[in-house]
Amino acid sequence: MKIVDPKDIQIQFLNRINDLIPKETSLVVVLSDLLEISNDSAYRRMRGETMLTIEEIVTLCDSFNISFDAFSRKETGLVTFRYKLIEPQKENLLEYMKGILSDMKTIANCKNSNIIYACSDIPVFYHYDYPETAAFKLFYWMKSIMNIPELEKAKYNPELIDPELFEVTKNIISLYKQIPSIEIWTDLTIHSTIKQIEYYWEAGVFENVEDAIIICDGLHKLIADIQDKAEKTVKYEDGKIPEGMPEKNYELYHSDIQIINNSVLVNLDQTKAVYLSHFSFYTMSTMNDIYNEKTAAWLNSLIKRSVLISGVAEKQRYQFFKRMFQLLDDLKNKITQSASNQE
Asked: What is the CB neighbour count within 10 angstroms for residue 202?
């Protein structure tokens, strides 16, 4: 049986923390401040000459939301996930979104970060770029997923949403546009959002047909924008490439293999993290090396079996988005026809 050197584990642990702090921040300073030790003591811990105490490990794990058992290289079949369930109050959704924003800042601040996103639904960040879809998603989550009591009998109304939520989500999509990413979509990726709109229409949650059509049109603009991003292979704001960033930061693949759950692999220098969706829009994450390596292998296999439709494959890209636009047209026609029959 191979004996694991505690010194190597500690160095690996501190390297991971180094991946999570902003580029301009020194790990020595972070350790000195959090552990209340001298710079020299921090260096000794970074070199593995002085072992971290249990109290120091707990402090660092709590500060960076990581689990120390993620550093075990033993195949135990046990994986620790970080997650946060929120109580059914409006203000808690805001705090939840601020947590996501914090994670996005960490990823964007890392020198060599990138994201691989297997999409069972449209990547939620995109909805935040459009007031119509952002309002619909936030309202839907609060009413139908969080079950906030005061919204139980409420009709769809964007004015019931905290304006600060829109501001936070705008910042989230702005950061996502900066991070190089690969997305894998299927023909069913758009279905979840379409079904949510359709359900609200049939359940009488929309006050009038105009509100439902506005959201359909917003979703149409969202999909058209993603098609444009795929053609140009960039997600940057207005297509403007920030200084020091790669010219291309977006790849889109079409998969014929059904994706059951949103799976997101984040690469941060030497560190990997996996985010999985659960309970509709909540996420849970892990930095367990073995699990993340298995996830990376699965995603790479999925990519190999998919068709790249960004930058190239103009015909396949056109046909792929045409099918989505047709689904949206069908939904709009169904809503307008239903509204006409009710008159």
From this structure: 12
